[in-house]
Amino acid sequence: MKTSGISLGFFNAPFLCLFWLRAEHSVDSVRLSAPEVVTGAYGGSLTVPCQYGHKYREYTKYWCRGPIYELCDIVVKTPRVRSSDRSSIADDKIAGVFTVTMSSLRESDEDTYWCVLARPGRNIYTGVRIHVSQPVLFSTAIRTTTPTTILERYEMSWWATLRWIVFILMLCCLVSTHIAVWRIKIARKKRQQPQVQYECQATPEL
Q1: Any transmembrane segments, and where (predicted)?
Q2: Residue 85 CA to chain centroid, in angstroms?
Q3: What kind and span of H or E run contains 165?
């Protein structure tokens, strides 16, 4: 019975340790607070306020990146106002908040970040998820109506009408020509028929 109790306690130790870490982190989250999700526009900028208790005013604060806090990379840190690449951090000790600004946002900036208070022993941290919204492209064509454009449209319409009139006239001329030629041929045939009959009658019988 004593052995089974020791083994049971041995197997429960990881769960107790995990529970203790979660409990401690939840207490730390009360000491340090930040929005869970912050969204910024592609190419724009965003700010993340990280609020802390006044007793942590003199502690170093930093902003790090990575899905797991223990393995995250520090992007920028205090004291004073400091910037690194496209990120900057400013600590307002009177208000008890340090603000992180990210500019010229890219799609690759989407990740999990951490507001961190560095202190002896275990640091205090809370996670922030950064989203970058895609740009929306609008195709706008502004067309202004001026007297010149109206005149051009009128001329185009007039030329189109004139082309149709010329085409119809040419078609009528072609049809009329064919009809005239046909009538001339008919008239010639009618004239030739009496002459043939007369020649046949005038020929003597042998």
Answers
A1: 161-182
A2: 25
A3: helix 147-202
Q: Hey, where are the domains in the chain?
A: 30-133, 148-206
Interatomic CA distance for residues 43 and 180, integer angstroms = 78
The CATH code belonging to domain 30-133 is: 2.60.40.10
What strands lie across the sheet with 60-65, from one edge to the other? 37-41, 124-133, 111-118, 60-65, 73-77
Give the pTM: 0.54
Residue 75 amino acid letter:
V
The structure tokens listed for 23 are 């409990």
Segment 166-191 mean pLDDT? 86
Torsion of CA 116, 119, 122, 125, to 10 degrees: -10
Q: What is the mean pLDDT of residues 133-152?
A: 60
The residues, any chain, with a CB within 8 Å of residue 104's CB and separated by 6 or more, are: 43, 45, 86
Is pLDDT of 84 > 80?
Answer: no
Rounded to an integer, the average pLDDT of 124-141 is: 81
**Structure tokens, 15:** 């769960």
Q: How many CA atoms lie within 13 A of 90 on its CB side?
A: 9
